[in-house]
Amino acid sequence: MSDDDQRDRVFSRRLSEVKAFEFNETVAGVFKDMIARSVPGYSLLLRMIGLYADIFVTPGSRVFDLGCSLGEASLLIAEQTRGVDCRIVAVDNSAAMIEKCRRHQTPGHRIEWRCEDIRRVPIDGASMVVLNLTLQFLQPEERQGLLENIYRGLNPGGVLVLSEKVAFEDEAESVRMMQLYQGFKKTMGYSDLEISQKRNALEKVLIPDSEQQHYRRLQQLGFDEIYQCFRGFNFVSFLAIKA
Ligand code: GEK
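A: This is the predicted complex of the input protein with GEK.
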């Protein structure tokens, strides 16, 4: 078992104070297990990203994986675009995550691992931009600016993959989805204590928009085709194509 394959027990003991969630070394060490057990359909989301790369990535273009964490999406894109002359720029502002990414061997592929803030990354010549569960960690007022930057940097025919945890405008739906999501986490082996302490830690850090907000914003930005390709309880993934 590598040190990236440890079981997530970050919130398993009762904490005297639940601090705001951070992507630090402890989290990076268990992240593979944490995300697989916390996001319904995570492995399917990754496979869908690989499929999109196959369809949309063009020679001479760049692919941006913004908030790449351990680089799983970038590695799949690299695999899928073997033989295509493109560059993959994978960005995360967690030094602990990027340090682990840099250990990956990707012969014949050009993944550039960058420890930077995605709000300041210049984006241009992109055939594909991936925001897989990352936009939700920016302050709500910062999201539009990043998306504008992405839209401008996409080539004609380029795509944005946007996966997010979402909030619900309808109260009854919101309550039901929370119940289902909590049930999902229990089936994945998390205790009630872990679920509630993690929820508290994320409260001010992960602020979800609604599906409608995402859809409207993508439309206003100018994307010509917008598809919701995945939904698992309160997680959705959009594919937005620039004409
Ligand atoms: C995956 N996409 O496995 N700049 C750079 N990185 C950031 C910023 C920022 N301003 N804010 C947050 N992050 C991945 C999963 S995880 C999702 C993405 C989750 C980074 C943060 O450090 C973390 O690694 C990532 O965004 C979010 O496909 O944990 O739910």
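Residues 23, 35, 67-69, 72-73, 91-94, 97, 117-119, 132-134, 137-138 surround GEK (CB under 6 Å). The first helix runs from residue 25 to 38.
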